[in-house]
Amino acid sequence: MNLESPTVNVNKSAEDIFEFLTKVENFEQLMPESKQKFEKISDSRFLFQLKGMPELVLDQKESTCPSQVVLGAASDKLPFTLTADIIDCGDGKSTTKLTFDGQFNAMMSMMIKKPIQNFINTLSQNIEKL
User: Fold this and answer.
1) Mapping DSSP to helix (H, G, I), strand (E, B) and coil, where does residue 118 land?
2) Which ranges constitute the DSSP H helices of 4-105?
């Protein structure tokens, strides 16, 4: 299952957005209002829970300064990645797009597609507000 957020314009440089997204504690600011739990586990790992969903642990898998940050599920039970692609537009501005890529069976995909799409859209909208 592959889902994408809309590309958003951000009034910060690509480097600033990259720095923000590589600090896992900053993801708490991007979470939807339905966030019930957020906990930084290490400099590259955090746990979060949204209302009605199980707790998820994300690891920073890789990063390419200043254009990409890849997070992935720490558990093999729900294998997925969340990639932020950042493009520098000059003049201290950039664009960001989030891509969710998960390996789920058809039934699971059907159940989680809408909530995941809403989640990445909210993250993207909150990045735009930075």
Assistant:
1) helix
2) 14-21, 27-30
For the whole model, what pTM was predicted?
A: 0.94
**Strand intervals (E) in the chain:** 2-4, 8-10, 35-42, 45-50, 56-64, 68-73, 80-90, 93-102
Quick one: what percent of the chain has pLDDT higher than 90?
A: 91
The pLDDT, as a whole number, for residue 45 is 97
How many folded domains does the chain comprise? 1
pLDDT tens digits for range 1-22: 999 999 999 999 999 999 999 9
What's the rounded Cα separation, in Å, for the pair 76 and 11? 36
User: What is the per-residue pLDDT across 87-112, written as a single tens digit (0 to 9) for each?
Assistant: 999 999 999 999 999 999 999 899 99
Query: What is the domain-level CATH number for residue 106?
Result: 3.30.530.20
Provide the residue range defining the domain that includes 79: 2-128
> Cα–Cα distance between 39 and 25 in angstroms, integer?
8
**Of 30, 33, 11, 2, which is closest to residue 95 (Cα–Cα)?**
11
CB-CB contact of 102 with 76 (8 Å) = no
